[in-house]
Amino acid sequence: MAKARAAGFRCTECGWISPKWVGRCGECQAWGTVAEQSAPTSATGLKSRTDGVAPTRRARPVSQIAEEHVVRSTTGIGEFDRVLGGGLVPGQVVLVAGEPGVGKSTLLLAVAHEVAERGGGTVLYVSGEESVEQIGVRARRTGAGSDRLLLADENDLATVLGHVEEHDPALIVVDSVQTIASSDVEGRAGGVAQVVEVTQVLSRVAKSRRTPLLVVGQSTKDSSIAGPRALEHLVDTVLTFEGDRHTALRLLRAVKNRYGPADEIVCFEQTEDGLREVVDPSDLFREHREKPVPGTCVTVTVEGRRPMLAEVQSLVTESATPNPRRGVSGLDAARVAMLVAVTERSVRRRISDREVYVATVGGAKLADPAVDLAVCLAIASASLGRALHADVIAIGEVALSGDVRRVPFLAQRVAEARRLGYQRILVPRGTKSLLPAELQGGPGPDGVRVTEVGHLEEALGMLRHLSVV
Hints:
The chain is α/β, with parallel strands linked by helices. The chain is built from 11 helices and 23 strands.
């Protein structure tokens, strides 16, 4: 019998496979994690059998499968329930991922407190990173002091399951999955084998007991979930908690959701007393001033399925150097450079020899092409020194040719602009007739006017009527 050959080398951190040994993983760039893996020893080269067995449950036509009503339980935090699709489902496993220090533990501690206070039963909060005394300090600071909220600091999976069996909680929180290890599996805590095993065991326990499970997962510098990619497939819902250390804004985004929308997003604000829900995030990304100033324009961006207003600010000034600077914050620098060139050609005013700065308000990160028209109007307004009226809003993608192109979710964008009192709304040509009748605007008591623009020159030509001298 021929001796089995090595099947290759595998990274113990991310699962990357290489035909030869290397000192550094080519996927996660970790050193010393690539090890040899054994090859299958069967004659066919497969580990699994190729003959089938009789199924225990026969396949049925889809027309005979009745639709089941999903029963949800609210957590008491409206925005958290919204991102889940209305609340927690019995046995649902939710992975909350984010960078260290972004506020994951604070959020889940608040959720645990609200569930316990609303009479949902005992809540078990297990931490493998902090002691119960450290968690208690945060709990007192954020007001999470329910008697039904039980805290435990454990790193052993069997002990965690012992707490679950002893208290029979209505909600389980594990912070974090990378710190829990099973004595039955080789490898360090946080490794591929341990993370997969711990997640699978906790998921089976949660589903067998029909108890919702919230699991914390750490993220890497590029905002991807640390550990194996299989971790995301083992859970029902994946939520990413994002935020900038220099701002108080926190975004909770649904990346995967088997029981609700997978593109929902909600906002929180970090305060001294914990996280505060932001029901209307449009106020965070625009300035409230008494008098309009040149170089500003408001637009409507869509994050997930939620329309939010955002203000774009621009400064165009004389340059003291042969190479004028271009400063961009909150937007894609390459796209802004393109829009500067398109605006210069359309406004027929030299901008390339001047310094141009473009930024968003409130630390907003805008990658939506629908903000292009607002960026161009802000740059033109700063260059000409003419301020747009406070009730002007611009929506549209700008092409290299200067054409203003259509954008998705226009009806939701226009509805959000009207709700917040904007009366002059610029939209791409050919889209006004596609809006519902109540959003098309025109002569009426509310004074809202929706105007179509087909080219950037047309929009800039209207700048004289839309601006304040």
